[in-house]
Amino acid sequence: MSLRILGGSARGVALKVPQSARPSPVRLRKALFDYLRLRYPGRGAFLDLYAGSGAIGLEAASEGFDVTLVEIDRQAQQLLRENAARAKLKVQIEPMAVERYLERAARRGQRFVVAFMAPPYPHDLLQDFERLLNADVVEPGGLRILQHPTEMQLPIGERRVYGTNCLTIVRQEP
Known about the structure:
By secondary structure, the chain is of the alpha/beta class. The protein has five helices and seven strands. A seven-stranded mixed sheet has the order 3-2-1-4-5-7-6, sandwiched between helices.
């Protein structure tokens, strides 16, 4: 599978994809970063949960965000390090389960302007997203974003459809 960073300082850099990953499609990534570029011109801290290949998180780092990648799969962690090095991007890789990371980040008072998650589809996506919604890790005015199949409907947030994938965006109230 050919996967490249679409914009920013590392535009065009090829990414290696771990077997466990289902990278976000190009159209979805392009639309997401067009939106974030306008919304957060000063960038800020970006959290990529279930980072996989790093397609979203490394794109964010290439665009100037300060990025934390959370991934429990060892092969994916190694490829994240390789992909970040090849792209010459500085990112923080947290090799642990998302649930554990969210608890620890909230305890430490870490805050992000964007918290993005694209859990593996066999997961209970609603439960995963509720965990993020309940974690106190997003700054006032920041965004919590879930990538999921279009057939899944959530009763909250703004819904954006890209083929068979969808983003649900929930803004943290100020």
